[in-house]
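// run 5 | inverse folding | seed 20
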């Protein structure tokens, strides 16, 4: 059964090419620091992260799901389109970017979405 995302839902993707040997440490930071940045924030509906595979090895992604673009802007402020780098991240990152994707009719989830 399909569980469509609510209209206006935003997926925020933080994509990082790590410096050589830094992937494991950055994933540890994602599990603590990055998780703290988004969880329990009004409008956040969950997050996930992981390393790239095959041709994407050396890349990691932290993705968070937001109720609306306004919720993203409320959490990240006027620089919401920029990377939010907590202390200690810059030493692990070769390059990074943030993307925002509107999730709508094309969304499919095999399990009901998280509710808060």
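// decoded
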């Amino acid at each position: 059964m399909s569980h469509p995302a609510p209209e206006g839902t935003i997926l925020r993707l933080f994509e990082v090419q790590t410096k050589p040997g830094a992937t494991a440490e950055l994933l540890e930071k994602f599990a603590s620091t990055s998780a703290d940045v988004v969880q329990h924030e009004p409008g956040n509906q969950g997050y996930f992260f992981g390393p790239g595979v095959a041709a994407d090895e050396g890349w990691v992604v932290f993705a968070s799901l937001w109720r609306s673009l306004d919720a993203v802007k409320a959490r990240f402020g006027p620089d919401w389109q920029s990377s939010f780098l907590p202390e200690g991240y810059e030493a692990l990152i070769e390059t990074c970017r943030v993307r925002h994707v509107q999730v709508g009719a094309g969304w499919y989830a095999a399990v009901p979405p998280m509710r808060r």
